[in-house]
Design brief:
The complex is a heterodimer of chains A (191) and B (174). Chain A has 2 helices and 10 strands, in the order αββαββββββββ. Chain A is an alpha+beta fold and 191 residues long. In chain A, β1 (35-37) and β2 form a beta hairpin. Classes of the chains: A alpha+beta (191), B alpha+beta (174).
């Protein structure tokens, strides 16, 4: 094999591996992977010029037009508290309390980042819709079938993600919520 | 044998690193361009599009919040500054965020910061003149998106809030 052919071949293979690896890496990443707090992943430089190229690419794919930390903090869970993936055929109990933010909401998405089809069109639960008496201590069920109390339907999809949005965080987003402040996700029965 | 392949392998490693960096830089710009195109399908550039509450069928952006009403203006400042006027909205929270072509936040302001007053922002390139009464927001590239978020309770009527946010506008300065 001639020398220039070897150079060309290795150059092409290298470029393909580099570009493919970058795309694969971004596609397999979750929104905000800088810090893990239990099952919750978060980051502080969304929408910021200081964000690394990798963070910028992941945010563009997973949460384009996300707000900076001073305005909102985003926490994403793709597993329960034990580290097992969130499965749409299973039920979960999610319990939480007051969060140090002006308002918050918890939304269920499919792995591509879209809302999940369900008959009652329930996609989230948050401080705006919860009764005031429950804000200090709340719980909800995530399950494919209707549940008593607050319920987020999974639509029976294979896997799902949860995103907790906390708008106008108390310290302008400088610090992460603690494990005690973030909701707990406990797996129940599976169909 | 090793000598024959040493330089080609080094060239391959160099191209792999370079391709990684270039791909990472391209992804945000490409996805932003796609998002602008999707949003602009509801109208055109430099025009405020008032979207309905998102549902499972919504595909304009990933991870939309079902608790927000979105009004968006995909903008292009190549012909002059783009003026954004957001009227006050009787909602617990509303904000205007302006994103450049690299997905960076160039400007963000919420109702608590404005004290319930309107926002008048002019998106412009460096050197473009800003009309009086508008706060300049300088962006790096020609295109980007302005997004108005309005918090609503999906379980309550939203007609009044919807009517108020529809007074917000986006246009090229004359």
């Amino acid at each position: 094999m001639k020398a220039w052919v070897r150079l060309l071949l290795c150059g092409l293979v290298g470029a393909a591996i580099g570009a493919g690896g970058a795309v694969s890496s971004v596609r397999s990443a979750s929104l905000g992977m800088q810090t893990m707090i239990g099952p919750w992943a978060t980051g502080r430089d969304f929408g910021s010029a200081e964000a690394s190229p990798y963070t910028r690419a992941v945010v563009a794919l997973r949460g384009l037009l996300a707000l900076p930390a001073t305005e909102a903090r985003y926490y994403t869970a793709i597993t329960d508290d034990t580290g097992a993936p969130l499965e749409g055929r299973c039920s979960y109990r999610v319990e939480g309390g007051a969060l140090p933010a002006r308002w918050w909401s918890l939304t269920l998405y499919d792995p591509a980042g879209y809302l999940v089809e369900n008959t009652p069109n329930i996609y989230s639960i948050g401080s705006v819709s919860l009764p005031l008496s429950e804000l200090a201590r709340w719980k909800l069920a995530i399950a494919p079938g209707q549940q008593p109390g607050h319920w987020l339907p999974t639509g029976g999809i294979d896997r799902f993600h949860l995103t907790l949005r906390a708008y106008l965080p108390a310290d302008r987003g400088r610090t992460d919520f603690t494990a005690q402040q973030l909701p707990r996700i406990t797996k129940g029965a599976c169909a | 044998m090793i000598n024959r392949w040493l330089w080609p392998i080094l060239v391959g490693v160099f191209f792999a690193v370079a391709a990684w960096q270039v791909t990472m830089a391209i992804i945000p710009r490409t996805l932003m361009t796609l998002a602008i195109s999707r949003v602009a399908q509801g109208g055109s550039l430099n025009r405020m599009v008032h979207g309905p509450l998102v549902t499972a069928k919504s595909r304009a952006i990933v991870r939309p919040s079902p608790d927000l009403l979105y009004s968006s203006c995909p903008f292009d400042v190549s012909r002059g500054p783009v003026l954004i006027d957001v009227a006050p909205i009787e909602a617990p929270y509303w904000s205007l965020a302006i994103f450049d072509s690299e997905t960076n936040v160039a400007f963000v302001r919420n109702n608590l910061q404005t004290g319930g007053k309107p926002i008048h922002a002019a998106i412009a390139l460096a050197g473009q003149a800003i009309p009086a009464g508008y706060q300049p927001v300088r962006v790096a590239g020609n295109r980007g998106a302005a997004l108005v978020r309005v918090l609503v309770n999906r379980l309550a009527p939203i007609d009044e809030i919807d009517a108020e946010r529809r007074q917000s506008s986006c246009r090229v300065a004359r």
